[in-house]
Amino acid sequence: MKIAFVQKIASALLLSLGALSVGLPAQASTLINGWHYANDDQLYDGSGGVSGNALFSGTSRYDFYGFGFKQVGQELFVGINTSYVAGASGTINNVGYGDLFLDLGYDNGSTFKSAQGSLLGVRFAFNDSAVGNGVYTNVTGKSVASTNSGYAKLNDYNKKVKADNDNKNLPDPNSRFGDLTWSNSYFGDYTKNTSVAVPNVIATGTKYTGGNVRSLSPADLAASMFPTNVNIASSNKHIFGFAFTLPEDVRGMSFLATLGFECSNDTISGYVPTRPVPVPPAIAGILVAGAVGGWRIRRKQQAKANQA
Question: Could you say which residues form the signal peptide (predicted)?
Answer without folding.
Answer: 1-28
